[in-house]
Amino acid sequence: MKKLVSLLLAVAMVATLLVGCGNAQTTTTDANASADGQAVFKIGGIGPVTGAAAVYGNAVKNGAQIAVDEINAAGGINGVQVEYDFQDDECDAEKSVNAYNTLKDWGMQMLVGSTTSGCCVAVAAKSAEDNMFQVTPSGSSVDCINGNDNVYQVCFTDPNQGAASADYIADNAIASKVAVIYDSSDVYSSGIYEKFSAEATQKGLEIVAAEAFTADNKTDFTTQLQKAKDGGAELVFLPIYYTEATLILKQADTIGFDTKFFGCDGLDGILAVENFDVALAEDVMLLTPFAADATDDMTKNFVAKYTESYGETPNQFAADAYDAVYAIKAAAEKAGISADMSISDMCEALKGAITEISLDGLTGVGMTWNAEGEVNKDPKAVVIKNGAYVAM
């Protein structure tokens, strides 16, 4: 009897082990399957949907969602549907990494993000370790892609934005005497300023004042504005985010400094700031790859869908995210990837394909990517008129 009991216990233990192994295999397979068991591609997204930079993150989240919905309605990627999950990082690098890990647990195979440069740099270090394909719509720092051959940008790099801004101001004779107010503690702002300064000199622009602030001192800009005013600045270049720009515009109005203001993609979102008098932003110019008032069919359709779904006009961050998802789709179809591939194998296939595609998107016609992860497309400029962005 004792031998029989021992034999039955042994059989039960083996059966338990076999069931456990079976469940582990099922869990792995289910990570790349929908609730009904069908294979899916899982694309994650990361950005701030709460906090001071929420305008950026919500735009990225929503723009990418529209692209995913369109792709699924048209049959998916290589005949496979797409699932999309977006995680809030509150514009905090540590929380962005936590969001990345949450998405990995969900089964993410490709990433659209992170939204802001500092967070993107932190996450890119992790995705590079995993060899996961990553496309950032708006992480413009060169550090997002430097040394990370799995990361690609839809936005211009910071240096490119700086050079393009100087070129636009000089080539269109907008001003000859320019002041700059920038955040020396921020990689985005300082990166744009450095290249702008060098290019402005080459273009014959006179920088009459270059005034810095830091993250610890970004509420009172009267000293910087007064130096720009005293220097005779015909234009103030603002390679900063919209939150600080609203304060600068208010304070310029208070001291009676009537001049032109020109910014980059960080200013996109200024019209959506709560309790900000948008009249203060009248005639503010910014370099951008997207103008919501463009008359081409793709832009009109996107703006209509976005406005209907989210009750507001999309900004360039939404458009960049939309293009990021379609860049993944184009590369995936070029590479012929399947949902059952490993993350690393999928990434290798996509890296080989994205440098061979050309994409006509919302933010550029004939967009291409080099092996370093940079996008090639033409910049545009918009000016704020009557509380809306108008193409220049």
Task: Give the tags.
2 domains, alpha/beta, Rossmann fold, seven-stranded mixed beta sheet, single chain, 19% strand, 392 residues, 11 helices, five-stranded parallel beta sheet
Can you put this structure into words, describing what you see?
Helix 2 (54-73) packs across helix 10, helix 3 crosses helix 4 (117-130) and helix 10 crosses helix 11. Helices cover 45% and strands 19% of the residues. With 392 residues, it is α/β, with parallel strands linked by helices. The relative contact order is 0.12. The radius of gyration is 24 Å and the shape is elongated. It has helices at residues 2-30, 54-73, 93-106, 117-130, 158-171, 187-202, 222-230, 242-254, 297-310, 316-335, 343-354, and strands at 40-47, 81-88, 110-112, 133-136, 151-153, 177-183, 206-213, 235-238, 260-263, 285-288, 359-361, 364-369, 375-376, 380-385, 388-391. The chain contains eleven helices and 15 strands. It has two domains: 40-156 and 296-377, Response regulator (Rossmann fold, 3-Layer(aba) Sandwich), CATH 3.40.50.2300; 159-288, Response regulator (Rossmann fold, 3-Layer(aba) Sandwich). The strands form three sheets. It has a seven-stranded mixed β-sheet, sandwiched between helices.
